[in-house]
Design goal:
heterodimer, A: 170 residues, alpha+beta, Jelly Rolls, 4-stranded antiparallel β-sheet, 5 helices, 28% strand, globular, B: 173 residues
Chain lengths: 170, 173
């Protein structure tokens, strides 16, 4: 069983709440090159990664896979699917062997419906990370808007597009 | 005060008991025309549920000047401002200004933090709701940007101004 204490979004749960999740989690492991999520395909599990590294890719332009991020255990993936549609916005591919534990999205949503304190706290922590992500996104949007307003159409469209890909980060 | 909350549609997702918890926590506030409700750059703040009146959301742009991001009329649609600031650790990303007289309910950050500390379900339900709103907005923005990049690449008709407008509507202060 993973030690959820080491995973940032579980840090604020008490021992009983962590134990509730530990009971639900099912072990899953991925070899290097295997996909945890495939862009556009279902995202119906939340994975807690306990060891290993994975890369996040998105096909922004047809035929071209853009590397967005490298994630490293201990962390969580699949949290956006929990809160929005269960469809992966990006692909997550194991770069090394990844040891993980998964819990079904439906099970988590049921727990939230039942006001499970453990699930509520988990979503509260996810919400805090999203609020910070939104702060970052806001700053990026402001930059992009300022660039658009200052250029007044004179900017090279290729430069603008490449900068946008780079700045956005997804 | 309890009546005040029941009149606000935003709180409909709570049970009556939970609404009472928030009624104790919430403060009725009002603002005159031109008054700032939230100030850009100020420390992480409180959530405001607008009961009546209308507000403007303004953002300072680098290189000077500011830009109107949104106009929110409490009688139509969205009525919450400051939800990102309530959960987040960084300061307000824009200024929210009263256009006319605004009546609102404030959920102070400190009170909310205490409710979370005490494990009150009402506070977690609100967090869940905010988290879902933020997740949906983040997803939508990503999709807008992907679409714009694809249009720019294919040299199609890219309406840059429309793209810009889509990016800034629905801003999470």
């Amino acid at each position: 069983m993973p030690d959820l204490k080491d995973v940032p979004i579980f840090k604020h749960l008490d021992a009983d709440e962590r134990a509730e999740f530990e009971e639900l989690l099912e072990p899953a492991s991925f070899e290097a090159g295997q996909m945890l999520f495939e862009e556009g395909a279902p995202e119906e599990r939340l994975y807690v990664l306990t060891s290993g590294t994975a890369d996040v890719y998105k096909t922004i332009l047809p035929g071209r896979r853009q590397h967005l991020a490298t994630i490293q255990a201990p962390t969580v993936v699949g949290e956006m699917g929990l809160l929005t549609e269960p469809r992966a916005a990006a692909s997550v591919e194991a770069t090394t062997r990844v040891e993980a534990h998964g819990v079904g999205r439906d099970r988590l949503l049921e727990m939230l419906d039942d006001d499970s304190p453990a699930a509520c706290k988990l979503v509260y922590e996810i919400g805090r990370t999203l609020a910070e992500r939104m702060a970052h996104t806001n700053a990026t949007v402001a930059e992009v808007v300022a660039r658009l307003e200052n250029s007044r159409g004179s900017e090279d469209i290729d430069v603008f597009r490449d900068q946008l890909v780079q700045d956005w980060g997804f | 005060m309890e009546d005040g909350l029941q009149g606000v549609r935003f709180f409909e997702f709570l049970t009556e008991e939970e609404r009472e918890e928030f009624a104790e926590a919430a403060e009725p506030v009002s603002f005159g025309p031109g008054e700032d409700i939230i100030q850009e750059g100020a420390e992480q703040g409180s959530l405001f549920v607008l009961a009546s009146g209308s507000v403007e959301v303004w953002k300072n742009l680098s290189g000077g000047g500011s830009r109107l991001l949104a106009e929110i009329d409490a009688s139509r649609g969205r009525t919450v401002v400051g939800e990102r600031g309530l959960l987040g650790a960084s300061g307000a990303s824009a200024t929210v200004k009263a256009v006319d007289r605004v009546e609102a309910v404030k959920i102070p950050r400190e009170t909310f933090a205490r409710m979370v500390e005490e494990g009150r379900p009402a506070a977690f339900k609100l967090s869940y709701r905010i988290a879902r709103t933020l997740a949906r907005r983040l997803t939508r923005l990503d999709e807008e940007v992907v679409e714009a990049i694809r249009e720019l690449e294919s040299r199609g008709e890219t309406d840059v101004e429309a793209f810009r407008d889509r990016l800034i509507t629905d801003w999470s202060v």
